[in-house]
Amino acid sequence: MTEVRKLTISEGAILQGYLRVGSLISLFPPDTIGGSNKSKLGVPVSIQFGTAVPVETDIAGDKLILRERGAVRKFYEVANAVPGDEVLVERVAEREFKVSLIRQSGDHEMADSSFWQALAIKLESRDAAWRNSDKHWVRLATNKGAYISAVQNAREKWVRIGIGLDGARVNEMRQQALARRASIEAAVGQAMEWDGVEGRNKYQFFLKLPCDPADLSDRPRQISWIASFVPALEAELRKFT
Q1: Where are the domains of the chain?
Q2: In this predicted model, what pLDDT tens digit does every residue of 101-128 receive, in sequence order?
């Protein structure tokens, strides 16, 4: 009874680790849809993300997203998903599904290691583990579930630098960040974009520069822009407890 549908994933879906299935809800048994929280779960289905071990999940009825967001987030990370990629959802049995990623070439071609190599040289971090990454994002430093993240996106034409929070203490650390929002923005010298809401497993605040990461003639400016904020962000990273 194989049925296949596909959907396009957004930057928000990748950052927050969710897979919204509202556009293909008819693919799932009606009883899979539960309430807005775990007090009213739907009847779970089995989903295999990529080649990982299948997990069981229902659908959160308020947002029509798969409730098992940890598996979704891991799937995006392993697949190196970027905004605009497509997710293929295949129903292989009554309550069994497979999910795979269809790569869209633009951003994956953009995420060449030379960008990060140039940043490592600028930061005098030539031995950094991330310098040869072929992903569109890297973590420059970490501390207690907080990390400095740099991202390049050729399709939407921007680069950005900021701090991300994840892990078991994400909401506690989010409160720390919000309490220090004014001082953090004063340290970097400008207002930041704050992405994420309480109760989610990932939270980020960052600065974004409109540019084309694929434009090699402009790369020195982009690298310098990212590097200019790293010292202040490192100082703020160390303040998380």
Answers
A1: 3-103, 106-237
A2: 887 645 444 455 778 888 988 998 867 8
Is 209 strand, coil or helix? Answer: strand
Residue 189, both tokens: 């010298």
Any idea which architecture 106-237 has in CATH? 2-Layer Sandwich (3.30)
Domain spanning 3-103 has what CATH number? 2.40.330.10
Q: 86-93 and 96-102: which strand pairing?
A: antiparallel
Query: Residue ranges of the alpha helices (H) in the chain?
Result: 11-16, 69-79, 105-110, 113-122, 170-179, 181-188, 219-237
Tokens representing 161 are 């630098």
Alpha carbons 233 and 230: distance in angstroms, whole number: 5
22 pLDDT more than 80 = yes
